[in-house]
Amino acid sequence: EEKNNIEQKELSLQKTNVKLSAALREVNDRRMAFKTFMDSVNEERLHFSSANDELDLVKRKIDAAQQEKTHYEGVMTTKVLPDIKTAEAEYADLQQRRQVFVLYWH
């Protein structure tokens, strides 16, 4: 009877060890899955950060281009267009004088 009792306890201990080993494997598997997940999250975060940096650079370039455009539009309005208008007026005046000259001498 004592021997039978010991054998049952040993069998119970073996079953417990099997369950414990399975539980430890499950814990290790989940730990590895979590590590893989966290590595993936960190990699995505780095890509996101890099993309954010690129976006900031593009925004700065757009702002600089907009400022440059505004500057050149101002130059066109204040300096170039008045010169063009003056040249057009002089051209029209010269054309009119030419017509008068042609009519007068023919």
Compute the average pLDDT. 94
Query: Beta fraction of the residues?
Result: under 5%
Residue runs with pLDDT of under 50 for 5 or more positions: none
Order of helices and strands: H
State the share of residues found in helices, binned by percent: over 70%
Largest sheet: none
Summing up helix and strand content along with how strands pair, one would put the structural category as mainly alpha
Which oligomeric state applies?
A: single chain
C-alpha-based Rg, rounded: 44 Å
Shape descriptor reads rod-shaped
Strand runs, count: 0
State the separation between the terminal residues, measured CA to CA: 148 Å
Number of helices: 1
Number of domains: 1
Keywords: Coiled coil
Coiled coil: 6-68
